[in-house]
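A.,

Following up on our hallway conversation. C-alpha cells first:
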C-alpha cells in the first residue's frame, strides 16, 4: 500500500518529472521518492523478524547491503543510533534512559500476579497474535525496535511484554488493560528492563496522562480523552487553517491513534523519543498536544486528509528538530493556561447537559443508575436549584474575595498575570453545575439524620467516596457523577460497594486490618453480630488483599446469602429534601 505518486522529492519537494531527473530513487525506509541530491546516504535496513507476517519491504533486494535512504530517514536513523550507543539500548535491559526520564524509582516491586482471567486472555491474545511485533509499527519504529530486539527470540520477547502488561494491570486494576498498552510496553522494553518498563508505564499513567483518560465510566466514556479532543479542535479552529473541517473530521477518526497511544502510531522514532523526553521533563501531557498540533498543521499543507491510511504518512513529514523548537517555546501553539481554560470549558458544558430534563438525558441517567425516571427528576430538580443558588452565592463571595486580593497585590507583573489567569479559570469553573466536597459532606450528614438505617460513615470516608466519583478531578461532582455515587452508596450491591471503597482507598492492595474495617462499613451491623460473621472472616483471611482477592470475597456464601435487600422507597425524596436543606446553609 503506497499512497504517493512519483512526482516530488520527499525532502526538497522538487518536481521530479518536471526536472526530467533520470535518476530519482525510492527511499528504502520510508518508501517515498527522493531526488539524488537528497539521498546520498546508505544504511543497513533491518530484516523483518517474522517474514511470514511482515509488511514486505519489496524495494530492498539484498538486506545484507546498505541501502539508499532519504535525508529525513537518515537523520532519524542517526538519531536513534546515537541513542542506542549512548544509553546502551537493548531489549529488556536496564538503560540510562530510564533514570533520565523518570529519575531513580524504587526498583523493588512485588511480583504478585493475581490477574483476572479476562485481562490475562486479552493480553495473551494481543501479544501472541502478534499485535506487539515490530512489523506492526510504523516504518521507522519498526527498524528501531528490530534493532533493539536483535539476538533475542520471539518467545522471549513476547514473554517480557506479557510480564510488563500483567504487572501493570494487577497494580492498576481500575484502568485494566486497554489495547495500545501493548505497543507502549514494547517501546519501553527497548529502553529498559521489565521492572523499569513497569515503572515508566506507571509514571505515564499516574503522573502524565490527564485523569480519567482511559476511564470507561458509565455514561461518560473516556471523559478525559474527550476533553482533550475538544481542546485540540478548538485550538485548530483558532489557527484558521484552510481545511479546518477536514482536520476536525480527521481528528475524530484518528484521535485515538494520536492521543491514546501518545503519538506512538504516528511519529517516527526520533520525533517520538524527543516528544516523550519532553513529556517526562515537563511532567505534563502538553508536549503530546503540541506534537499533535504540529503534525496536523504540517499535514494540512501536504496531504489529502480524506485518503485512507494517511496517518502512517504524517510522521514521515515531521522532523524532530521542528518538534524540539516547538517545545523550547512556552506557548508555541498554546500555553498551559489556555489549555486549562478549554478543558474546564468542556467539563462545564457536559456538567450543564446532565441537569437537563430532556427525555434523552433522563433515559441515559436511568440506564446507568438504579433510580427510576421519577426519582431522577425529583433529585435532578433539587440539584439544579441547589447549583443555581450556590453559584450566585459563590460568585458574589468570589467577587468580594478578588477585590480584597487585588488590594494586596504586589507590583510584580508575574504575580498579576498568575492572579488574573487563576481568576479566569475560577470563572469558568463557576459555570459548572455540580456539588463540591463540603456540600456533599453536609448533604450526607443531613441524609443520615433522616435515615439511620444506613451505616453512617465518618467524614473522611465520605471524602474518599467523593474523590473517587470526582472523575475528572474538578473538585465538583456533576449530576451524573453525583447520581452514580448515590446509587452505589445507597442501593449498590455488596460487590459494587466493596469495589467502590476498595478503589477509593488504593489502587493496589489492602492489609488485613484495613480490609476488615472496609467490611465493617459495608456489612450491616446486625449481620456483624452473628457467629457466622466471625467464621466468614476466618475463611477469607489473608495478610494482604489484592483487587482479585477482594472480588473473591464477594463470592463467599456469607455475602451472597445475606445480600441484604436494598432500600428502594423514599430514598430519592430524602435526598431531594436534604439537598433543599443544605441550600440555605
Ligand atoms: Zn530532493
Ligand atoms: Zn525516507
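Then the amino acids I'd put at each of the 585 positions:
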Amino acid at each position: 500500500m503506497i499512497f504517493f505518486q512519483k512526482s516530488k522529492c520527499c525532502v526538497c519537494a522538487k518536481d521530479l518529472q518536471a526536472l526530467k531527473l533520470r535518476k530519482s530513487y525510492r527511499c528504502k525506509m520510508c518508501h517515498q521518492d527522493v531526488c539524488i541530491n537528497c539521498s546520498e546516504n546508505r544504511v543497513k535496513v533491518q530484516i523483518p523478524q517474522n517474514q511470514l507476517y511482515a509488511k514486505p519491504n519489496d524495494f530492498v533486494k539484498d538486506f545484507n547491503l546498505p541501502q539508499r535512504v532519504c535525508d529525513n530517514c537518515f537523520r532519524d536513523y542517526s538519531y536513534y543510533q546515537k541513542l542506542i550507543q549512548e544509553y546502551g539500548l537493548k531489549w529488556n535491559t536496564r538503560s540510562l534512559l530510564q533514570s533520565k526520564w523518570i529519575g531513580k524509582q524504587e526498583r523493588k516491586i512485588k511480583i504478585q500476579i493475581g490477574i483476572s482471567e479476562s485481562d490475562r486472555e486479552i493480553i495473551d491474545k494481543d501479544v501472541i497474535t502478534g499485535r506487539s511485533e515490530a512489523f506492526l509499527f510504523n516504518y521507522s519504529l519498526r527498524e528501531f525496535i528490530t534493532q533493539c530486539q536483535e539476538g533475542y527470540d520471539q518467545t522471549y520477547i513476547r514473554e517480557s511484554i506479557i510480564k510488563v502488561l500483567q504487572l501493570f494491570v494487577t497494580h492498576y486494576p481500575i484502568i485494566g488493560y486497554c489495547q495500545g498498552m501493548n505497543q507502549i510496553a514494547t517501546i519501553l522494553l527497548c529502553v529498559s528492563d521489565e521492572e523499569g518498563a513497569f515503572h515508566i508505564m506507571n509514571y505515564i499513567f499516574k503522573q502524565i496522562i490527564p485523569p480519567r483518560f482511559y476511564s470507561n465510566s458509565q455514561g461518560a466514556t473516556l471523559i478525559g480523552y474527550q476533553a482533550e479532543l475538544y481542546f485540540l479542535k478548538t485550538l485548530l479552529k483558532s489557527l484558521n487553517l484552510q481545511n479546518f473541517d477536514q482536520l476536525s473530521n480527521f481528528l475524530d477518526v484518528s484521535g485515538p491513534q494520536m492521543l491514546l497511544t501518545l503519538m506512538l502510531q504516528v511519529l517516527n522514532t526520533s520525533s517520538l523519543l524527543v516528544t516523550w523526553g519532553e513529556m517526562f521533563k515537563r511532567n505534563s501531557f502538553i508536549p503530546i498536544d503540541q506534537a499533535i498540533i504540529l503534525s496536523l498543521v504540517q499535514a494540512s499543507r501536504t496531504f489529502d486528509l480524506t485518503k485512507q491510511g494517511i496517518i502512517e504518512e504524517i510522521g514521515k513529514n515531521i522532523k524532530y528538530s521542528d518538534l524540539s523548537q516547538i517545545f523550547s517555546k512556552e506557548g508555541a501553539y498554546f500555553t498551559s493556561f489556555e489549555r486549562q481554560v478549554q478543558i474546564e470549558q468542556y467539563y462545564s458544558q457536559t456538567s450543564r447537559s446532565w441537569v437537563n430534563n430532556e427525555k434523552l438525558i433522563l433515559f441515559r441517567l436511568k440506564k446507568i443508575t438504579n433510580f427510576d425516571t421519577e426519582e431522577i427528576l425529583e433529585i435532578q430538580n433539587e440539584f439544579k436549584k441547589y447549583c443555581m443558588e450556590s453559584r450566585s452565592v459563590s460568585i458574589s463571595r468570589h467577587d468580594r474575595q478578588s477585590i480584597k486580593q487585588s488590594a494586596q497585590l504586589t507590583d510584580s507583573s508575574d504575580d498579576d498575570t498568575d492572579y488574573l489567569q487563576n481568576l479566569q479559570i475560577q470563572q469558568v469553573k463557576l459555570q459548572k453545575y455540580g456539588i463540591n466536597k463540603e456540600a456533599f459532606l453536609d448533604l450526607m450528614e443531613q441524609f443520615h439524620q433522616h435515615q439511620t438505617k444506613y451505616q453512617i460513615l465518618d467524614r473522611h470516608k465520605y471524602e474518599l467516596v467523593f474523590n473517587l466519583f470526582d472523575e475528572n478531578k474538578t473538585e465538583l461532582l456533576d449530576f451524573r457523577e453525583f447520581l452514580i455515587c448515590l446509587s452505589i452508596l445507597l442501593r449498590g450491591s455488596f460487590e459494587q460497594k466493596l469495589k467502590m471503597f476498595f478503589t477509593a482507598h488504593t489502587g493496589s492492595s489492602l492489609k488485613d486490618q484495613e480490609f476488615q474495617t472496609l467490611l465493617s462499613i459495608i456489612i450491616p451491623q446486625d449481620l456483624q453480630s452473628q457467629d457466622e460473621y466471625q467464621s466468614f472472616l476466618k475463611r477469607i483471611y489473608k495478610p494482604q488483599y489484592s483487587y482479585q482477592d477482594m472480588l473473591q470475597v464477594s463470592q463467599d456464601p456469607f455475602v451472597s446469602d445475606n445480600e441484604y435487600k436494598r432500600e428502594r422507597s423514599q430514598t430519592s425524596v430524602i435526598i431531594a429534601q436534604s439537598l433543599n436543606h443544605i441550600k440555605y446553609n
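Residues 27, 29-30, 32, 69-70, 72-73 surround zinc ion (ligand 2) (CB under 6 Å). Curious whether your intuition agrees with the design.

B.
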